[in-house]
Design brief:
By secondary structure, the chain is mainly alpha-helical. It is built from seven helices and no strands.
Length: 129
C-alpha cells in the first residue's frame, strides 16, 4: 500500500511515539482493513457535513468529532495536543483542505473549529473533574 506522503511524514514526525505506533499498526493491516477504515471515515465525514448547520460545538457534532478523534486509534493513540495540531493542518495545508472540501464547501474550517471545541471541552473536563 503505497503512501505518497510517507517520506514527508517520516521527516516531520519520525521521531515521535505516534509515528512509531502508526508504523507498527499499519504493518499489521490488510488492504481490507484500510478499505473498511476509509469506508467508515467517508460515512463519518458525510454525517458531519450533513449536521454542520447545528454548529461546531453542538452536542451532535461533538459526538461525531469524538468518533473522529477515536478513529485515529487505528493508527496511534491520539492526545489532545496532536489533535489540535491536526486541526491546524486541516486549514493550513491545501491537501487536507481539499480532502474535506470534497464533502462540503467550508468543511475544512468547520472541522478545525469543531476539533478545537472538542479539545477545549476535554481539557476543561480534565482540569475541572
Amino acid at each position: 500500500m503505497h503512501n505518497p506522503y510517507a517520506g514527508e511524514a517520516k521527516k516531520r514526525w519520525g521521531d515521535t511515539e505516534a509515528y512509531r505506533q502508526s508504523q507498527g499498526r499499519v504493518k499489521k493491516m490488510t488492504k481490507e482493513d484500510f478499505a473498511l477504515i476509509q469506508k467508515k471515515e467517508d460515512a463519518l465525514m458525510a454525517e458531519i457535513a450533513a449536521h454542520r448547520d447545528e454548529g461546531a460545538a453542538s452536542p451532535k457534532i461533538q459526538e461525531l468529532i469524538e468518533a473522529h478523534h477515536n478513529n485515529f486509534r487505528h493508527f496511534y493513540e491520539p492526545n489532545l495536543k496532536l489533535y489540535r495540531g491536526l486541526a491546524g493542518l486541516y486549514i493550513e495545508d491545501p491537501r487536507f483542505s481539499a480532502y474535506f472540501e470534497k464533502y462540503a464547501p467550508g468543511l475544512a474550517q468547520f472541522m478545525h473549529d469543531a476539533m478545537i471545541a472538542y479539545c477545549d471541552a476535554e481539557q476543561s473536563r480534565d482540569t475541572n473533574p
